Amino acid sequence: MKTINAQPDGRFPGRDPEPVEATLGELRSLVRAADADLGVAHDGDADRAMFVDETGSHIEGAAAFAALAAAELGPGETCVSAVNVSQRLVDVVAEADAEMALTPIGSTHIITVIRELLADGETVPVAGESNGGIFFPGYRLARDGAYTAARFLELVANQPASAVIAPYNDYHNVRENLHHRNDREREVMLEAAAQAARESDATVDTTDGYRLDYGDSWVLARPSGTEPIVRVYAEARDPDRAADLAEWMVQHVTDARADARR
């Protein structure tokens, strides 16, 4: 095992503590140079884990989560995730004949729903978000980056990491941030998203904003909890489909914003 930035320092001099592709260049280079089987990156408090495959390529958090969930879920069991859950995980849950429970974005919401489901006698073997924060409630009801890394290492014991996540690579995401000036604009924009949902033939979830599921794709409009922004997300296997869904929702929301500014 080789480590980078393993000396505790709350100033994080080695890299930004957020383990995203843009901050993991040194890890990716080391994986290639060392001919390693896997690279693991943690955030500042190490409750999340992100991965680099044996070629030095970044593994998307949604793909890693899907691979872990596929290894855990069985018929009738439940996976808990946030409302911006990837289509990858939706497909894994369907293939396992399991159930999906959606929550508002944030780990505390996920913990609350896990507790409720367990109290009702449901089985929740895995839960989490695509940012590397995964729960294995049978182990402990908290995110644990080291344990997540250990579980992912089990998956790569008999095949390369690139092969483990290969079934979950062919998905395309679009994300747009739409700014608003005040609460009135925000409400008008969200009402436009609600109207789009009412006019659609999708399955609509209003857990946190408006998520429209079409079976093979989805689009979500939700307000940021920290910035004056309405976020629009879309995902599909077909990149054109993802782009079209995002554009359709963005058009509804920005048209309403423009009307509010007149």
Give a verbal description of the structure:
With 262 residues, the chain is an alpha+beta fold. It has a domain at 172-260: TATA-Binding Protein (2-Layer Sandwich), CATH 3.30.310.50. It is 38% helix and 21% strand. The chain contains eight helices and twelve strands. It has helices spanning 25-34, 61-72, 87-95, 107-119, 145-155, 161-165, 183-199, 239-260; strands at 39-42, 49-52, 58-59, 78-82, 99-103, 126-128, 134-135, 172-179, 203-205, 210-213, 217-223, 229-236. The strands form three sheets. Strands 8-12-11-10-9 form a five-stranded antiparallel sheet, with helices on one face. It has a four-stranded mixed sheet with strand order 5-4-6-7, with helices on both faces. Helix 2 (61-72) packs parallel to helix 3 and helix 7 packs across helix 8. It starts with 24 loop residues before the first helix and ends with a helix. The model has no long low-confidence stretch (mean pLDDT 97).
CATH level 1 name of the domain at 172-260: Alpha Beta
CATH fold description of the domain at 172-260: TATA-Binding Protein
* Residues in helices, as a percent range: 25-40%
Shape estimate: globular
Mean pLDDT comes to 97
Q: How much of the residues is beta strand, in percent?
A: 15-25%
Assembly type of the chains comes to single chain
The class by helix and strand makeup works out as alpha+beta
Q: Give the biggest sheet.
A: 5 strands, antiparallel
Order of helices and strands: HEEEHEHEHEEHHEHEEEEH
Kindly report the name of the CATH homologous superfamily of the domain at 172-260.
Answer: Alpha-D-phosphohexomutase, C-terminal domain
Distance between the termini: 61 Å
| Largest sheet, spatial ordering of strands | 8-12-11-10-9
Question: Which regions are unreliable across 5 or more consecutive residues at pLDDT < 50?
Answer: none
